[in-house]
Amino acid sequence: MAQLSVQNSNVIIFVSYAVLLVSGLSLALKLRHQSKVLINSFATEWHCANRTQTGNSTILTLLAYYQFSNLREAIPLALNFIASALGSGILFSYPQLATIAGVQGVVTYAITSSAPLMVFAYLGPVIRKKCPDGFVLTEWARQRYGVTCSLYLSFLTLVTMFLYMVAELSALHQIMNALTGIDGMRFVIVECIITTVYTAFGGFRISFVTDNIQGAMVIGLSILFARHIWLHTNKYDKVFIATVTIGFETKIDQRLVDSSGLTDSSLLGWQLLYILPMAVLTNDFFLSNFWIRTFASKTDEELWIGVSIATMTVMIILTLVGTTGLIACWTGAFDPSDPMLDGSIAFFYLLKQLPAWIIGIILVMVVTLSTAAFDSLQSAMISTASNDFFRNRLNVWWVRLSVLIVMLPVVVIALKAPSILRIYLISDLISSSTIPLLVLGLMDSMDFLHGYDIVAGGVGGIFSVFIFGVIYYGNIRQGIRLTLLEEGLYANDWSVFGAFVSAPLGGIFWGLGSSCVRKGYRILMRKSKGSMTHCIE
């Protein structure tokens, strides 16, 4: 791989971070000066911006000329969802799946990762109507199920976002190691400092604005390289590939295409048609950065348009990124039959054919992607904790301090995290056991569900996975390993599929069972009191 010198790599990366820091602080100070409300009101705005986000971005002035008002006002929201949905981790997981499940896996993963965003357009207005003063899902859970369930969901939400932050920094660390040959720890620390500084000053509102810029950069570079492909395809007898961050030429060996089997369907590919929608859809419910943006939309119509645009854009980008795994196999850059090669870095094997200037652009885009995803998770995590545990009564300065404290364990764990995909899978299994039962509470006919039932269902769902593992393998130790998904997503059997079936079904079973036990206990107590009253009479 044509590699940049250490000096050039440092300059590109640190200048990119400096630009993001200056722009973030400038916007934060601007928003603070524009605020003409009392400090307590500002503290509330730090956490959320309910029904305030509309078409105020300078990027949208061109659309104003054409008077597409609804579209114009939905674009900032779409950019936010795009920036929040993408992170540097996509350069690992999507190409890796392509090397295992082929074209079927790429298409399935891209669709099932993007389509669940539409749940916010569908359920967002429903939940906002039921809980107009809330800005995260846990606030509705508190209103519907009570404090116990709300605190349980808050804990799971914070754990999920914590894991996502760890995965993001772990991906950044590994990418910088691969692209620059420099220890990526310094860049991890710098990113944490930068996002912590401007997030502490601006809160959610600054995250919303910076995501507009970062989301636009991602789309802009994608268009740039798509144009690069179109201009050069007729000139050279080669295949050109574009992803979020790359545009390059490479030669595909037709013999490798035929022998790889990646164009054929597979058992794993069919299993993923169920596993991925269940995992991604339920896990999105625990990501407060999406819910805060859902509640921030000014109207339901703008929410629908914005999320629809984001869904299509994310799907296209993820498909392009996943395709690099296929190309790596078909060009001989990566041999999937070699057990010594790691499919999670197939993207970087492919980069060996790139010129140095492309590496520079990739570094800029990695910094942008990672920062956009990380500051969204950061602000959402603090907003959720402040709202759910302190009811937004905590002083703003204490909130800012908490941002700094949270970063310490995130960095330590990220530098030691072995597998990014496994981190995601653990949180997916937790959400799969809890969310299906929780969502049933939106139905009027399920008003008998109580907060204790949700907690029992969530814990019972995980226990059901363990029971399935013991039955499937006939071994308690293997049952524990399956519960922790130690074999990853790409097992050559039905174990992972069974785990993601057991989790939601088990969660619903244990939750409804808890409801029956509660009702039975009440009936017995009522009859017991009636008998005692009869005896006294």
UniProtKB/TrEMBL annotation:
Signal peptide: none annotated. It is a multi-pass membrane protein. GO terms for cellular component: plasma membrane. It is found in: Membrane. The chain crosses the membrane at residues 12-29, 74-94, 106-124, 145-167, 187-206, 213-230, 272-292, 304-334, 354-374, 395-415, 421-442, 454-474, 494-517. GO terms for molecular function: spermidine transmembrane transporter activity. InterPro entries: Na/Glc_symporter_sf, Na/solute_symporter, Sodium:Solute_Symporter. Keywords: Membrane, Transmembrane, Transmembrane helix, Transport. Belongs to the sodium:solute symporter (SSF) (TC 2.A.21) family. This is Urea transport protein.
